[in-house]
Amino acid sequence: VNSLPIKNSAYCIHCLTPGNFLPTHSDLYGYYAKQNNIEDLNKIIRIIVFLDDAVPGHLLIVDNNCYTNYKKGDIAYWTGQTAHLAANLSEVNRYTLQITGTLIDD
Questions:
Q1: Number of alpha carbons in the 13 Å side-chain half-sphere of residue 80
Q2: Which end of the chain is more exposed for a tag (fewer CB within 10 A), N or C?
Q3: Cα–chain-centroid distance for residue 54?
């Protein structure tokens, strides 16, 4: 995580229980943006680290890209208000690490 090109990192473990989903949405980053004095949401990056190998029924869709066969440690990411959804249509919990940060300008 320290090698990622981001600053002002915030972390959260997320458990999506069987039969639940987060419908298509765009993140608002209200608290994060306020705490870090960010007005341009396109400077914010959200990184999802998969904490287990995928099982049938676990999925993440980001901007029309569907992640279903991921391995433990794989990542998905987006910036700003990119539309995405997550679903757990399996019988086991789906765990992810969510990292929010701002991109480091080169």
A1: 8
A2: C
A3: 15
